[in-house]
Design a protein that fits this description.
The structure holds two protein chains of two kinds. Chain A is an all-alpha fold. Helices cover 84% and strands 0% of the residues of chain A. Chain A contains eleven helices and no strands. Chain A has helices at residues 4-29, 33-53, 57-75, 82-102, 107-115, 123-152, 154-159, 164-186, 188-205, 209-234, 238-264. In chain A, helix 2 crosses helix 8 and helix 9 packs parallel to helix 11 (238-264). Chain B is an alpha/beta fold. Chain B contains nine helices and twelve strands. In chain B, the strands form three sheets. In chain B, strands 5-6-7-3-8-9 form a six-stranded mixed beta sheet, with helices on both faces. In chain B, strands 2-1-4 form a three-stranded antiparallel beta sheet. In chain B, helix 4 packs across helix 5. Chain B starts with a helix and ends with a strand. Classes of the chains: A mainly alpha, B alpha/beta. The complex binds adenosine-5'-triphosphate and magnesium ion (MG).
């Protein structure tokens, strides 16, 4: 379970968990869970298209993730992305299905991008993952204060010269970057659950943003570690464990949050 | 200008001259002219849709004007010195943010990066503490901001706007959704803040009555046009009738002011409102 091959897997999955935990915190804070669903899943059709053309699937994935993020940003007004996002997702998934039907020989490889196949990361694949993760985390650190401010209320940022349009597009690009780096490792479904569940649970655990982000990272790490160990031991798909563990943590987090609130205000 | 200086008056902190603004091809502000002196408490009064929010957004530079000039004292010196509390800020109870985090972002929320210097951190904390104290919000400084009551959230947002030490504080209907007691608390607090920090306050409201004890100037908006002056100058039947373009009566009852549309005229408000309701400053008699 800790052979050198597996060590790469543990490292890659841990990097993915950290990025998912951090980016996810802002996804949840901004109420953009749906965007976090659409970009990874839509991007998979880019991978399908790239496979059809004989290009690198990760390249196709990255291009579609970026195009998806920019498209959602251009169509959605004032952070209300739901309809624009849904339409973008439908178009991209449909295109992906078409590409897949044309390139049957690559189908298993592309399905792995959808559902994840973490148990096979080579040493050479680790470096680009680590590099993209650093870029992603640096971008979030850079945008930290304007992002939080505009998440409270866009007007509060606008009067301080923080353009909602710019900050929102920048954030969607961060989600796209996180997608391009993580989906080849864990798949779109896992990335989605890693961005939503740990952050969703963490915000109930602390009232301090810094502590909540730390909790989000910790929960994401525990989720993938336990998931990989169980998936290795029982030989069930990793997606099952990450999905259910994430949901369990989220439920637990909400319970604890509700208790904390009751203790904090016994009158209410 | 020089005449003003000779009179011993300071330059206004805000002055609008003949400002017009269009939204979706419709004239929403039409030749609005008024000035606000430093430290002055101004009430911006108008019914729903009168253009209060639009006017505040014009002052902030968030809404382009079609004509006219907006001059801010601070802008001339190259300093952003306007605080703003928008209408209807819904603070999500799921947001892991304390009241003090929201206040701190009023100081440096536009900056990039994460602050790390411990010395700067101490200065930051002290300023946040002072801002919270000036709105009596120290008791709930560490509470999750989305779980606070409406009045408490309003005070946190005022501290957020004040911490940048603005010369002008704009508040868009800060009394909406507050009960009478919280309304009085917020008004008293704003009057105190205006005095202590020498910040000019412009706040919008659809009812002028809660503001009567503290306001030094009224800007009365109707149909995109405005009249400005003291309450006695503006809230008179002749002046408001000219503004509305039809006859209105101004009634003073038990220290309250009611503006009532005259008989046979277009109602100021759409029908269905309680005529003569004492809750509102502007009512209609169909
Ligand atoms: N984005 C917009 N596009 C088109 N028209 C708008 C827009 N925003 C406001 N308006 C119109 O401009 C007019 C003034 O609106 P504004 O929001 O300034 O009024 P208000 O006095 O703040 O009203 P309220 O008391 O309801 O907040 C209204 O008739 C409104 O319908
Ligand atoms: Mg308004």
């Amino acid at each position: 379970m800790f052979s050198s091959f597996m060590v790469n897997t543990w490292v890659a999955a841990s990097i993915v968990a950290v990025v998912g935990g951090v980016v996810g915190f802002f996804v949840v804070l901004r109420g953009s869970a749906f965007v976090a669903h659409a970009i990874p899943h839509g991007a998979f059709s880019g991978a399908a298209g790239a496979a059809l053309l004989g290009l690198n699937t990760v390249f196709g994935l990255g291009v579609f993730a970026l195009a998806g993020a920019l498209g959602i940003s251009a169509l959605g007004r004032k952070g209300r992305h739901d309809v624009a996002t849904a339409l973008g997702l439908v178009v991209m998934l449909g295109t992906g299905a078409l590409f897949l039907s044309w390139s049957a020989e690559y189908a298993p490889q592309i399905y792995a991008l959808l559902f994840g196949e973490v148990l096979g990361v080579s040493r050479a694949e680790l470096w680009p993952i680590a590099g993209l993760a650093i870029v992603c985390l640096a971008a979030v650190a850079l945008l930290y204060r304007p992002l939080v401010l505009s998440s409270i209320a866009p007007e509060l940022g606008e009067v301080r010269g923080v353009s909602e349009r710019v900050i929102d597009t920048a954030f969607l690009l961060v989600v796209a970057l996180a997608t391009a780096m993580t989906v080849p490792v864990v798949g779109a479904l896992l990335m989605f659950s890693l961005m939503i569940a740990p952050a969703g649970a963490a915000r109930a655990l602390s009232d301090r943003p810094g502590v909540a982000i730390a909790c989000s990272i910790a929960l994401a790490l525990v989720t993938v570690w336990v998931g990989i160990a169980l998936s290795y031991a029982i030989n069930w798909p990793l997606g099952f464990f990450v999905g259910t563990l994430g949901a369990a943590f989220y439920g637990l987090g909400r319970l604890i949050g509700a208790r904390r609130r009751r203790i904090a205000s016994p009158v209410a | 200008m020089s005449a003003r200086v000779l009179e011993g008056r300071e330059a206004p902190v805000l002055s609008l001259r003949d400002v017009s603004a269009d939204l979706a091809g419709r004239r929403v502000l039409d030749g609005v002219t008024f000035a606000v002196q430093p430290g002055e408490f101004t009430a911006l009064i108008g019914t729903n849709g009168a253009g209060k929010t639009t006017l505040l957004r014009v002052i902030l530079g968030l809404q382009p004007t079609s004509s006219g000039t907006v001059e801010l004292a601070g802008a001339r010196r190259g300093r952003r010195s306007v605080g703003y509390v928008p209408q209807k800020v819904l603070l999500d109870p799921d947001m892991p943010l304390r009241a003090r985090d929201v206040v701190a972002l009023g100081m440096d929320g536009h900056r990039l990066g994460i602050p790390v210097s411990p010395r700067a951190g101490r200065v930051r904390r002290a300023r946040v503490e002072a801002a919270l104290a000036s709105v009596d919000a120290l008791d709930f400084a560490d509470a999750r901001v989305g779980t606070l009551s409406g009045g408490e959230q309003q005070r946190v947002l005022i501290a957020h706007a004040l911490i940048g030490e603005p010369e002008l504080l704009l508040l868009d209907e800060p009394l909406a959704n507050l009960d009478l007691r919280s309304q009085h608390e917020v008004v008293a607090l704003l009057a105190r803040v205006a005095e202590q920090h020498r910040v000019a306050v412009v706040m919008s409201a659809h009812d002028m009555n809660p503001l009567l004890p503290v306001m030094q100037r009224i800007v009365y908006l109707a149909g995109g046009r405005a009249v400005s002056g003291s309450t006695e100058e503006v809230v008179r039947s002749e002046v408001l009738s000219a503004l509305y373009g039809h006859h209105v009566d101004v009634l003073r009852v038990h220290g309250r002011i009611l503006v009532v549309a005259g008989e046979g005229d277009e109602p100021v408000r759409p029908p269905g409102e309680e005529p003569g309701s004492v809750e509102s400053g502007i009512v209609s008699v169909p």
